[in-house]
Amino acid sequence: MTQHRSTLYLLLAAVLVFGVLSLEYHIHRTPIAIDQQTPPQIIESGLMKDAIPAITDPVIESIAEADVYLENDGPGIVVEQKGYARFYPFQILVWHEVVNDTFRGEDILVTFCPLTYSSAVYERTVADEVAIFGVSGKVMDSNTLLFDAASESLWSQLKGEAIEGAFTGARLVRLPSTLMSWSEFKTAYPYGDVLSRETGADRDYTQNPYDQESYFDSAAVWFPLSHEDARLPAKTIVYGYEEDGSAMAYPEDYVQDETDDRVLRPAYWFAWASAYPETEIWKGG
Asked: pLDDT tens digits for 5-39?
């Protein structure tokens, strides 16, 4: 009888543990089901500030040096000015998310959020001062929140807007950028240069930390959303355009086939729709 009770207790404990883990998974790995839009919430991701280390003193190298380890089909952000171009590999950005750089005399902020697959480049100036940005460890609508070192205001990576702190409501000036594969960049800009993996951080740049969770290949969204839109699958990549309160989302194939316009912002659909709930979807024509 004692052995039977012990077995029963073990089974009950296992069921309880499974229930807790299952609840935690559904809270932290899928969006909250909502009937209407709710105000976006700032959420602790579980990482401390600077746990994802921003690059503040980037090393730049040649195409020949980077070609030793970059994969031909690996994507990256390209910044171009007057025929000069620089490639920021996702292979590195996935570990750092933020690069405080200077390109052709201009102080720029290069950003990539793996959770929302959104990249953006901004002027690195706040209140007429050159700012240093880092990764706060907080998210909103599953999108990374950045902070500026001077005021520690929180900034939306996707929108470039301060949402908490002394600069609330301020917006960074967005700069033209585009996404390319490494092979495309080498062909288009044979004399371009590249962000080096000599970052000062101890990271294995041959690995992608999100691959361990199969994040990019799954439908999972890791943090709650203020707005869900079922018009497209959550992780469809769209290119968004927003101006004067109106927004449009273009499908990836449209951007590749029809336009070279670099003002469009790539992101997962769930992130774009959360940031711009009234967005329209381009239907062609």
From this structure: 544 444 444 433 333 333 333 333 444 444 446 78
Distance CA 208, CA 204 (A): 8
pTM of the full structure:
0.84
Q: Are 63 and 193 in contact (CB under 8 A)?
A: yes
Query: Cα-flanking dihedrals φ and ψ of residue 232, to 5°?
Result: -135, 155
Q: Please, is 281 exposed, middle or buried when counting C-beta atoms within 10 Å of its C-beta (0-12, 13-18, 19+)? A: middle
CATH number of 60-195: 2.102.10
Confidence label for 214 from pLDDT (cuts 50, 70 and 90): confident
| Residue owning tokens 């190298």 | 61
Contacts of residue 281, defined as CB under 8 A and 6 or more positions apart, other chains included, come to: 231, 232, 238, 248, 249, 251
Which ranges in the chain are annotated with CATH 2.102.10? 60-195
